[in-house]
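Structure (tokenized):
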């Protein structure tokens, strides 16, 4: 027999669970045991653009397991600039591997996921193998892109050996002082 106190506890738990969204706005639920493997700054002509941190449960880093890339911006960047640069980098890294139609679809997904950023804003991308990627800001889930191929191509911008900023890559992987 359930007591009135037991019913009250169950009701409170049920109400609390209804208040939690299906996709929590807290990115670290995706990689609960993650620790910072490394961090570094992206600079351009001496200007700090953002500080990046790589969060992973695997050390050494394994790009085929869940991880998060946290970017904290030091400059304002438009969504258009962020999306165009991302598409350009994917093209540079992969050449003609992806069709124009696929790149256009990914551009649309990124336009939906990202917004203009200003100094102090944060974007966290979570890589989920065989699922895709989720993008968060400090407050909420921005987008759930269920395309594993997009996720691999997007995060390759930072982690592929051919990345433009090899120094930042080494710092993120915890290999640079």
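Design, position by position:
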């Amino acid at each position: 027999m359930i007591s009135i106190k037991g019913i009250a506890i169950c009701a409170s738990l049920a109400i609390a669970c209804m208040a939690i969204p299906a996709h929590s706005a807290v990115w670290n639920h995706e990689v609960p045991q993650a620790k910072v493997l490394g961090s570094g700054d992206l600079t351009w002509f001496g200007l700090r653009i953002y500080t990046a941190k790589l969060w992973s449960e695997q050390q050494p880093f394994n790009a085929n397991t869940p991880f998060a890339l946290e970017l904290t911006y030091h400059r304002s960047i438009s969504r258009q600039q962020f999306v165009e640069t991302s598409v350009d980098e994917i093209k540079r890294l992969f050449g003609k591997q992806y069709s124009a139609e696929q790149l256009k679809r990914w551009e649309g997904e990124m336009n939906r996921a990202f917004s203009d950023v200003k100094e102090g804003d944060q974007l966290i991308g979570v890589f989920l193998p065989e699922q895709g990627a989720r993008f968060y800001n400090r407050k909420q889930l921005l987008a759930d892109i269920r395309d594993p191929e997009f996720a691999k191509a997007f995060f390759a911008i930072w982690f592929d050996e051919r990345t433009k900023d090899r120094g930042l890559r080494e710092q993120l992987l915890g290999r640079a002082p």
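Reviewer-requested clarification: The first strand starts at residue 35 and ends at 44. Helices lie at 4-19, 79-94, 100-113, 148-159, 166-172.
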